[in-house]
Amino acid sequence: MNKTPRLLLALDVLAAAGMLTTIGLVFLYAPIERVMGAVQKVFYFHVASAWIGMVGFLVAAAVGVLYLLRRKPILDVAGHAAVEIGLVFSVIAVLAGMTWARPVWNTWWTWDPRLTTAAIMVLVYAAYLILRSGIDDPEQRARFAAVYAIVGAVSVPLTFFSIRLFRTIHPVLFGGDTSSSLSDFSTDPRMVLTFFVSLAAFSLLFVAIFWHRIRLGQLADRVEELKLNREEQQ
Amino acid sequence: MSTPDTFFYFYLGFSVVLGAMILYVISLFLRWRHLKQEERHLSEPKD
Q: In terms of C-beta distances under 8 Å and separation of at least 24 residues, what long-range contacts does A116-120 make, across chains too?
């Protein structure tokens, strides 16, 4: 627990290099989109953050299923970590989307199906963190969190597919209408490369942060155990 | 049609993304340091 594993340190370096490469590509390599101007470049961070957010929530659901089957405390720690990271990156995606929307849609926020489902998803997982912190018994808390993460994961596909299921002004990146402003980006290979490098860099960052967050959760459990032991001694 | 100047919003979006990520990583570090101190304190034999 004390020493950071070498593989994790290597992951940290790789994730940092990936992020620096992404920033370099976004600023220096990706062209400025003709219709929206420079703000279109926010898209590289917005989509990658949203991707990590959804991956975090799906990992939490998968880990929740495993917890219910095996009842290992590490799985609860991992589920908690995945939700926290998913929530942070989902909020980042929403904020980045808002800065893009202001000049393009002429508003920071609108109750479009994608924005609404994303907001609901964020609230669902914010409630997860609040509710689990209110349960003292570790086993009950872990069981509750696992079930909540599984049920809450319904909001992930709902958010992802909302732009295909409902009428929306949000751009559809893959398989969308060709008149969509972002569909044109696929014609420029520099944009495509920057986009996929950004996705890969954020994915690496997720793995590194997830590992760190699990270690933090394990340390928190150990401190909790020490506190209980000391109380019993008194 | 000329390309609009939306650099301000690009820089704003970039600052929000990077700033939030850095804040989260700092929070992880601070929480880790705090818990380590607490662990050391609790592991010390009580007088």
A: A116/A162, A117/A155, A117/A158, A117/A159, A117/A162, A118/A50, A118/A90, A118/A93, A118/A94, A118/A159, A119/A94, A120/A155, A120/A158, A120/A159
Q: What pLDDT score does A175 carry?
A: 58
- Under the banding of pLDDT at 50, 70 and 90, the label for residue B8 is very high
**Amino acid at residue number A7:** L
The share of chain A scoring above pLDDT 90, in percent, equals 82
Q: Are A139 and A94 in contact (CB under 8 A)?
A: no
pLDDT at residue A72, as a whole number: 95
Q: What is the ipTM of this complex?
A: 0.92
Residue to test with chain A: of B1, B8, B11, B14, most A Cβ within 10 A: B14
Report how far residue B21's alpha carbon sits from residue A89's, in angstroms, rounded to the nearest whole number: 8
Residue A166 C-alpha, separation from nearest chain B C-alpha, in angstroms: 27
Query: Among A166, A133, A169, which Cα is nearest to A148's?
Result: A133
Tens digit of each residue's pLDDT (9 = 90 or more) over A114-172:
999 999 999 999 999 999 999 999 999 999 999 999 999 999 999 999 888 888 888 87
Q: What is the DSSP string of A176-194?
A: --TTSTTGGGGG-HHHHHH
pTM above 0.95, yes or no: no
Chain A residue with the nearest C-alpha to that of B28 = A213
Residue B35 and residue A223: Cβ atoms within 8 Å? yes
A42, A49, A105, best to mutate vs chain B, most B CBs in 10 Å:
A42
How many CB atoms are closer than 10 A to CB B20?
A: 17
Angle between helices B7-43 and A42-70 (to 10 degrees): 30
